[in-house]
Amino acid sequence: MTKDRIKTLQAMEILDSRGNPTVAVHLELEDGTQIISRIPSGASTGAHEAVELRDNDPARFGGKGVLGAVKNVNEVIAPALVGQSVSDQAAVDQRLLELDGDPRKAKLGANAILAVSQAVLGAAAQVHAEPLYRYLGGLNASVLPVPLLNVLNGGAHADNNVDIQEFMLAPVGAASFHEAMRMAQESYQALKKILQEKTLRTAVGDEGGFAPDLDSNRAALDLLIQALERAGLQPGQDIVLALDVAATELKREAGYAFEGSIKTGPQLIDYYHRLIRDYPIISIEDGLAEDDWENWQLMTERLGDQIQLVGDDIFVTNVDRIQKGIEEACANAVLIKLNQIGTVSETLQAIRLTHHAGWKAIVSHRSGETEDTTIADLAVAINGTQIKTGAPARGERIAKYNRLLAIEQMDPTLEYAGWEAFRP
Ligand code: PGA
Ligand code: ZN
Asked: To test the ligand 1 pocket, which listed residue (313, 367, 369, 389) has its Cβ within 8 A of the most ligand atoms?
């Protein structure tokens, strides 16, 4: 078949949800199929992530322009890929890796590379006349994920006194995905009302969660419990809580800057131990920093049989780092972000390795997003059982949830994961 061959590939500089430049790619196939893929961008970015190429030209977008990455697509990648079939994702991604040659994709930029890799995936699904989740997941895709909705923000995503970056709702007690979204949205609205009554700020952070000025992390958790009750929901039954500490951002030479003093790794682990005793917390992401393997091991030993321990900055969707984590029993789940590694094929490899270890793979957005919904389909395709894509607010977050609502509507064979998402 020749209709699945790439006819043109053209990149452009667009804006993400923070208004920062990011890369989009417009791809056209021989048969006229067209697709635009758009790439997100993080703020609490791990040191081991693939390189996001920025222009560093202070005259444009405060140095954040991506004209270099755009040029790399148009002048290096496009000439090499025109005429290639999009049906062989692995071959396209292999070619992209060869064109770059750097292990961290520093030459062409992971943003340039992923924009192309993801466009190829989307075009392939279209030309094969399948919804993306089905093209990618085949008959095996059978589960709609539990959304992890970030409704309260601290850390690098907000300008307040809360150290934990994200407080999330997991509506595990819902019978369907749309019921889960209703429960979460009603809790989010109840939270807003409570904040207003307390004359606390209701301005939202980058992922749509509120970012009020609070005295402590526990104050944030208490507010969430109040909001659930106000919404008529049972904390611990209808909805459980998940945290992303984003501890890499808290790491200092001597330890972790947490609640006004410097804490050691073991002290933080003790703190988490008390938190999960006092609140219905089911998952903690990045409880420790990206290179603190020793304490990750200790945390897993102490808490790993009680809750999900998710590695984001420590693994960066990289098979070598995930492999090390599995061997050393650090964490029991991996956050999956396409742009941490830079190609669809490498992302799928990371997911396979994670699942093979009996760990959970949680597909995630970035704090800087676009209207692209590829990750919603990816979460379904891999039977991810959980997806992390922000508050039930802001268009770029809602785009992913709306895609999942549409998938649920189109395909009654898919079942909502519910509590199953958190069973070992
Ligand atoms: P980021 O945050 O996209 O800013 O890295 C999300 C996360 O830490 O999970
Ligand atoms: Zn994170």
From this structure: 367
